[in-house]
Design brief:
By secondary structure, this protein is α/β, with parallel strands linked by helices. It folds into 2 domains: about 5-270, 3-Layer(aba) Sandwich (Rossmann fold), CATH 3.40.50; about 285-465, Immunoglobulin-like. It has 6 helices and 24 strands. The strands form 6 sheets. An 8-stranded mixed sheet has the order 1-2-10-7-6-5-3-4, with helices on both faces. The radius of gyration is 22 Å and the shape is globular.
Length: about 475
């Protein structure tokens, strides 16, 4: 069980520690010219009333869709929708070697420039002089790069969640050239200084105690089991900043769990949230984009010509309540599939048809509030699916499955491939007979999603996507 917060101070570093001991960071400095010309300097603004608009920055391979709960919780605590923004990096996956071009992948510099442009647009739209920025995992790399390269005067607060600030590894042989390797230019440049503070920016890092798969002394999660990584459990801390430790949470949960929300909200507003719960809207308006993949990598490039259907399904069986879709649309050049007015007490099946890709049936829990980040991606068959009559996947985009920590089953079973120890897997899959068509229940703690089997031979694949 995750403990509540307590504060401590150690040396010059301010800490808010949740259930763990504060640890000081090794001394490390920074090259301010790591990415060439800095962002033009802005005049120092006068103080503005009210909290700043918030920009959310997703991690490696992800999209803005992962921030849906955080956005809802900020709204439920007084933020207006037009104060909250979430970027979608066009190519969200990092290059294998940051210095070498790789199709449909981005460098650290690419992401820094894209984020800088996005923040400038947010400032224009809101007529504010500064934003608060919250980043998950790799998103924090883009934030740090922006702050160190002339963008600090656009930012009042920065929160980095599970960002490998020291690196996933510090090694000349493991992940050579990677953006996530502390021995190579990107992180060496960011960490070349006495601390990680940025003048004029309130800095916070949120991390796990020992449950972050990318802050481990052993290389198990990077394909090098038994080899030392050169980093430890504190690899996500910021030296000199306010560091928050959330016991038991995993690499993604330190951004998307409600306790992470509480820490980032208080850091930005100066007061704790009035509520940790999501205030419900009876008739939420849902919208989002369809994106695809290129050469096996997901991108956030919008897809035209994709057909989306939405069916209301029975909350116990997953069966469609009507043969007629509540919503059907073929996306245009903007990739937008909505809007759709739903009910916050109803379960839905989203069916995505894209040329040359499996027909993806995604079953979702009820949507509690309106959202325009309900983005849709196709799912692909795996080699293990060959010969299967039907394939069902349970997916947890905002966290991993923790054996012993969580209760999770698919059709009453724990799917193979979910590791013990540090949570490291966000998907599990099972194969079923093609007929008879039947209900398959996906369970994660207090969230239950009913799905139906669909024939794999006809190109259908099923996903139960958890909200939490």
């Amino acid at each position: 069980m995750t403990k509540g917060p307590r504060s401590s101070r150690k040396g010059p570093t301010r800490r808010a520690v949740l259930g763990g001991a504060a640890v000081l960071w090794p001394t490390l400095a920074l090259s301010t010219q790591a990415f060439g010309q800095p962002v033009p300097r802005r005049q120092q603004p006068a103080a503005e009333a009210g909290p700043p608009p918030v920009v959310f920055v997703h991690g490696n391979g992800d999209s803005s869709a992962l921030w849906i709960n955080n956005l809802w919780r900020f709204e439920a605590n007084g933020f207006k929708r037009n104060q909250l923004f979430a970027i979608d990096f066009i190519y969200p996956n990092a290059r294998s070697d940051d210095s070498k071009p790789q199709p449909f992948r981005s460098s650290a510099e690419d992401q820094m420039k894209e984020l800088t442009s996005f923040v400038v647009q947010v400032l224009k739209a809101t007529r504010r002089r500064k934003v608060a920025i919250v980043g998950s995992s790799r998103g924090g790399n883009a934030i740090r790069a922006l702050l160190r390269n002339g963008g600090a005067d656009m930012v009042s607060h920065a929160v980095l969640c599970g960002t490998p600030n020291k690196g996933i590894v510090i090694s000349e042989t493991l992940l050579p050239g990677s953006e996530f390797n502390g021995a190579f230019p990107f992180l060496k440049g960011l960490n070349d200084g006495a601390n990680d503070l940025i003048p004029g920016v309130e800095m916070m890092a949120i991390r796990s105690d020992k449950n972050d798969k990318f802050s481990q002394p052993d290389g198990r999660f990077i394909g090098a089991a038994g080899k030392p990584t050169g980093v430890s459990y504190d690899a996500s801390e910021l030296r000199g900043a306010r560091n928050v430790i959330l016991d038991g949470l995993d690499h993604r949960e330190v951004a998307f769990n409600k306790l992470a929300f509480a820490a980032m909200f208080e850091h930005i507003t100066g007061k704790p949230p009035a509520s940790m719960f999501i205030a419900q809207e009876p008739l939420p308006i849902l919208n989002g984009k369809v994106t695809g993949m290129s050469e096996g990598s997901y991108t956030n490039v919008v897809a035209a010509g994709a057909e989306v259907e939405i069916f209301e399904v029975d909350s116990r069986s997953g069966e469609r309540k009507s043969a007629v879709a509540l919503h059907r649309k073929t996306t245009g050049e903007d990739g937008v599939w909505g809007p759709f007015v739903g009910r916050s007490d109803s379960c839905y099946e989203f069916v995505l048809h894209m040329p040359g890709l499996p027909i993806t049936h995604t079953y979702r829990s009820p949507f509690l509030r309106s959202s325009d980040v309900v983005h849709l991606r196709p799912q692909a068959f795996a080699k293990a699916d060959e010969g299967a009559g039907a394939v069902t996947i349970m997916s947890r985009p905002r966290g991993y499955f923790g054996v012993g920590r969580d209760k999770f089953t698919l059709d009453g079973k724990v799917p193979p491939g979910i590791n013990d120890g540090v949570p490291g897997v966000s998907m599990g899959r099972l194969a079923f007979d093609a007929s008879p068509t039947r209900t398959v229940m996906a369970v994660f703690n207090n969230e239950t999603i009913p799905t139906r089997t669909w024939p794999a031979k006809d190109g259908h694949i099923v996903v139960a996507e958890f909200l939490n």
